[in-house]
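hiii, so i know i said id send this last week but things got crazy w the move. better late than never?? heres the sequnce for the chain we talked about at the cafe, plus the structure i predicted for it. fair warning i was half asleep when i ran it
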Amino acid sequence: MSSIGGGLDRAEVKLRWDPSSYAEPPRHLDIIAATYSVDDPYGRPVYVVHTESRSPDGTINMSRHSETGMGLGFVEAMVLEFDRMSPAYGRVVVGVAIHQDGGPRTFADLSNAGVVVVEGYKELLVDDFAQVADATAATVAEFGRDASGAWRFRAMVRGFDADPVLFAAEMGSTRQQ
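okay and structure toks below
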């Protein structure tokens, strides 16, 4: 994982996409974060944060949520506060899932979709999902503790062919979908 100064204290993941055309079902995307324990960083998530939920300790929460995209820039945002996160957690994986109501949709079916991960004003990742165009969900970022306990960021854009529920269970796996 890349080193960013003395480690991350806080990061934000922002998502944008344009609304669907007239007479089409709304396009609905969600940011999802899965948190893993220090003892089992690649096992099952301890908890998952999505939609308008937050982590049990309030260190990961959705600050904005959209069900249509609206085409007004970044309309969905998730805040991750690593400086307050329990030492019991050692890894957080963040991804984006497309709701499949109204028929199957991939990132190629969306217009102006994009994600940015920022620490303050510093962009850690900017992506338009082109490399996962045929996927219905994708991980975008992995945050993990290093040997000193400091949080580090690693870009992790990987495509999945799964609905949001299955994606949340598998997004932290080590195998490609």
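btw The beta strands are 10-16, 29-37, 47-50, 60-64, 76-81, 89-98, 114-119, 122-127, 137-145, 151-160. thought thatd interest u
miss u guys!!
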